[in-house]
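About this split. The held-out portion is used to measure sequence recovery: a designer receives only the structure tokens and must propose an amino acid at every position. Recovery is the fraction of positions where the proposal matches the reference. Here is one held-out target exactly as it appears in the evaluation file.
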């Protein structure tokens, strides 16, 4: 049985380059701090960790919680080290949870697997985001309702919505920053201390 859930994917930008510049020991300490900060915020935003690589695959019952987590996560990274920047993708769609066998979990498997097309859609959205940016599908924006309008974040950070015409499996790799096909993105940057919403902004 599939249920509508919010899927949030994160990925650290230039993590390999940062590891090479810091060295394995210092980089390991930095990644540990990142993982701790990311996980510590899950309880407050009612999220569940599903998988991890450089970043995380997280599951939320509500899009508003997923967005709140994303903004909190960006703030946490900036506080740890300004070189830590993550791209984040948020999508809402039907998913199924499949529990792995206890024996497989004992051998290192994840407790749960997420199944459904919403997972690769969220991954593709995340891949399009820039460092420090949270990219939303139209489905995620619709699920948020007025929540996004009331959100306030620091200058320089943005939430960007992909248009409803965007096709996640249309072929080719394009980015909002380079492709004119994504220049119709609706973006809103919500500044600290202000509820101003910038709509119709172009990402170029």
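Reference sequence for scoring:
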């Amino acid at each position: 049985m599939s249920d509508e859930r919010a899927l949030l994917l994160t990925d650290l930008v230039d993590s390999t380059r940062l590891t090479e510049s810091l060295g394995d020991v210092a980089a390991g300490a930095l990644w540990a701090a990142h993982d701790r900060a990311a996980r510590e915020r899950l309880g407050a935003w009612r999220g569940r960790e599903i998988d991890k690589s450089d970043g995380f695959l997280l599951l939320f019952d509500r899009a508003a919680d997923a967005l709140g987590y994303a903004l909190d996560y960006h703030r946490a990274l900036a506080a740890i080290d300004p070189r830590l920047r993550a791209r984040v993708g948020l999508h809402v769609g039907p998913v199924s949870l499949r529990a792995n066998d206890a024996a497989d979990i004992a051998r290192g498997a994840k407790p749960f697997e997420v199944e459904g097309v919403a997972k690769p859609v969220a991954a593709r959205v995340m891949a399009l985001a820039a460092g420090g940016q949270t990219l939303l599908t139209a489905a995620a924006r619709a699920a948020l309702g007025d929540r996004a309008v009331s959100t306030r974040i620091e200058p320089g950070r943005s939430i960007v919505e992909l248009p409803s015409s965007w096709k996640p499996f249309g072929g080719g790799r394009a980015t909002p920053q380079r492709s004119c096909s994504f220049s119709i993105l609706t973006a809103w940057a919500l500044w600290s201390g202000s509820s101003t919403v910038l709509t119709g902004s172009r990402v170029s």
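Annotator remark: Residues 20 and 27 are 8 Å apart (CA to CA).
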